[in-house]
Amino acid sequence: MTTERPSVLQPEMPPTRWGDPAHAAGLPDGVRDLVGLVFPIQDAPALTDVAVPAPRLADDQVSGLRAIVGDDHVVTDDAVRRQRTRGKSTPDLLRQRSGDLGDAPDVVVRPASHDEVVAVLAYAQEQRIAVVPFGGGTAVTGGLVADPAGLTGVLSLDLGRMRGLLALDPVSSTATLEPGLRGPEAEALLAEHGMMLGHFPQSFEYASIGGFAATRSSGQSSAGYGRFDAMVVGLRVATPVGEVRLGSAPANACGPDLRELFLGSEGAFGVITEVTVRVRPLPEAKEYEGWRWSSFADGADAMRALAQSDLLPTVIRLSDENETAINLADPSGIGGEDRADKEGPGCLMIVGYEGAPAAVAAKRAAVTEALTALGGTALGAEPGEAWASGRFHAPYLRDSLLDVGVLVETLETATFWSNRDSLYQRVKAALTEALGDGTMVLCHISHVYPTGCSLYFTVAAPGGDDPLARWLPAKAAACEAIVASGAAITHHHAVGTDHRPYLTAEIGEVGAEVLRAVKRAVDPAGILNPGVLIP
Amino acid sequence: MTTERPSVLQPEMPPTRWGDPAHAAGLPDGVRDLVGLVFPIQDAPALTDVAVPAPRLADDQVSGLRAIVGDDHVVTDDAVRRQRTRGKSTPDLLRQRSGDLGDAPDVVVRPASHDEVVAVLAYAQEQRIAVVPFGGGTAVTGGLVADPAGLTGVLSLDLGRMRGLLALDPVSSTATLEPGLRGPEAEALLAEHGMMLGHFPQSFEYASIGGFAATRSSGQSSAGYGRFDAMVVGLRVATPVGEVRLGSAPANACGPDLRELFLGSEGAFGVITEVTVRVRPLPEAKEYEGWRWSSFADGADAMRALAQSDLLPTVIRLSDENETAINLADPSGIGGEDRADKEGPGCLMIVGYEGAPAAVAAKRAAVTEALTALGGTALGAEPGEAWASGRFHAPYLRDSLLDVGVLVETLETATFWSNRDSLYQRVKAALTEALGDGTMVLCHISHVYPTGCSLYFTVAAPGGDDPLARWLPAKAAACEAIVASGAAITHHHAVGTDHRPYLTAEIGEVGAEVLRAVKRAVDPAGILNPGVLIP
């Protein structure tokens, strides 16, 4: 087939906020008043366009890059450099809001093909220019903040021109996608063929196929469709020492599975230029519903029972008591006021089914029977529909809260089931202690496995005069609690620069040396996303 | 818990045959006559105990090893060295039958613990002794044939004393197993707790937990329980440069998943000393049945439809026309003689369901409906039971056929569905052409994925005067056909030394250099299974 390209492209995100500027809005008055009951309202200063630092690259370096990808695709404008600065973590946004654009790339280069990526890498290696692959720009762990020490500058390798559906194999049910496709663009291309990928992380609207692969992303439908890395059957990667093509079969015994070495490599081992994924027929039926559990522990035990029976719906997520209360604003709304009086507010679980109608009906019947037997109360479709319609909105709300001086950030981890409660308590305590009075810690479980689950925390606290200075020690305390609990330092947000200090605790000194050895082999000049991932 | 150990240990296999010597038997007269209709019967010479080469290690090296693991656990007896020579491929058996024990290890060392493994590796590194980890000895691709060039000798690191269940976490449904446990021993230990692993490759009765992990094994119930690497959630590995412990959670985004680098590392990156796996409740119900398809292609399409609908039973395997005919001896037995006359012999599919009775009933109903709609004919339980009762017997039959001069070997590959038929035809043609008149090539599909499947070939041909000399070029021709087809050089038999020449075609030059870089990092002296895996 000839390459198919999306007819509608996602808009650019501004450097200081999430998403489409047209969708940004202040807090409605009623919500603002509610927030004001909990946190001091403190309007943030109006944002200004701060100057980015002067580019470090020499003119002949810029010319050299132009010779590879064409004049139009080597950009040194401040506006574009600003847009390619850092990602979308709260620290990133706070730095940008405060006028700190110190991590701006010196130049933005937009290759159109694998071969152009190869040529840019060769030139960057020769010129000792750091290369930061840029997909959707949604990184939340500092993955776009390369350290140019010892190099001549930083090149943001913007993959936005590589947004094609390169191949579709309907017999094998696979599609080969270019890395710059944003989530909705990839889904739109596949939908023209009646297919879908089914990867819906909260960053879905802006994050890219290459980023999903490079960070081992996991989406909201992971119970049914799996993590992104589990969808990948093939990869093409450009490295400074040559090309890597992997994936001769769905699975094999050809030694270590090197796909799993480039998945999660966060731009440090190469630039992913093609991703071949399993695709599925578009679901004819989609049903989302709510369930009430008397406690977070009871709901978690029910998730565990389903996962261990291999009886998972497409979506399953459970909010703890705090998150349930905040999301509903009226906790007594779950399961009726009487019940809330007697048993506490309870916890909301969202359960979603997608697929062919008969399969959805069968799965739903089996899951309903199991959840009922485990003590859950079915709440009907309304909470499910509410979740589905708002599933990608949280980052906009964060911007609105940052606007009124409330510090909001998320972090996540994963562990085995027997360690779930201990991990939950320890991270919560670490955050509460670090941020002090008035801190709210919410948590949900959104990814489950037969042997364990993720825990996703949302923290809100008064921002004070310097919210960044308040957050960084709290994040460190949470990371230390995670490491002390023996849990994963990240379940789906990746390592970046923020988690790099904790990676050796995760993989050990020998594991760290293995990563360094691979890095030396594929990137001898150390130009690929320096400072990211590798301990 | 304290370490639990199996009460019954699997017996040792003889160096020239598979399995328990008590189970070995010549061909029954009727079968011998049948075989004689197809192949020239040519009784192989009586086996004799051939002398093994003189050990190369110096006495003080043997003493050094004794100081680590104790006098009783450093063995230089010819009988034991013979038992630890090579694996169980047909070339291995033919070499041993012909008296070639040139690959015998110089010494067999039996550590009792991770710490003893660490100490042995340190000593071996200092003394430049090659270390070949030995689990069950069932390797079929030369994984136990280290090349001692540049080293002082070869040490077989026999993990047979490390046969413990170290931990069981019933909440997380995980078990931590030592590497020397054979399949039935591990299952017996878990069964005492009502649990099972569910990994049943044909080598199940003798293969070891460490070997399953080191070779990315896949078992006959992979449709329901997954490949072995998919069951692993944690690993402990001893390397010459230190210990590696991996697995803080079922899945994570902590960079590349290094578990996947040590899974499939075939002893070349370290010695796996602990494996933590997902376990499951013992199934209350087990049902196996047969289905008839008019052709291999129709049956394969049905498997594909099930896999792509995420509607797989626990076991699903499909024999091609040749394998169906041979296995049944009477092809008209499938689906009735009338049907065979009209439509040809057809192909037999085995479908198995295991689990809780209600889940088995529900899955069976859904699969039955799907297979019927796809054109399959249900044959009832008898073919399923026959398969289940004979599922581990094929290697004994191979011995009996080798005894009467028939060359028999297997090989396997995997590919995406759209390439299945082309791969099948090319490998079959390559084998038939290489081995000439009277060659029978049988094939089955026993591992399926949404995007593709494995192909497992059994070849039988007249052995002639030098069956090894006949087989090696045929194997090379099959490997070249696989590589030319873009398929995986092995789906579950691993790389070893036999597939090493083809690995670079699989992973590319950069992939090969990545493996070499990791090897240098974890095994700077090159003592770990030298000559195996690494291109």
Automatic annotation (TrEMBL), chains A, B:
SUPFAM superfamilies found in the cross-reference section: FAD-binding/transporter-associated domain-like (SSF56176), FAD-linked oxidases, C-terminal domain (SSF55103)
Flavoprotein among keywords: yes
* Gene3D superfamilies reported in the protein's UniProt record: 3.30.300.330, 3.30.465.10, 3.30.70.3450, Vanillyl-alcohol Oxidase, Chain A, domain 4
Task: Name all FAD-binding PCMH-type domain ranges.
Answer: 101-282
Q: Which organism is it from?
A: Nocardioides humi
* Residues covered by region (Disordered): 1-23, 79-103
Its recorded name reads: FAD-binding oxidoreductase
Q: Which domain of life is it from?
A: Bacteria
Keywords, in A-Z order: FAD, Flavoprotein
The reply on keyword Flavoprotein is yes
Write out the similarity annotation.
Belongs to the FAD-binding oxidoreductase/transferase type 4 family.
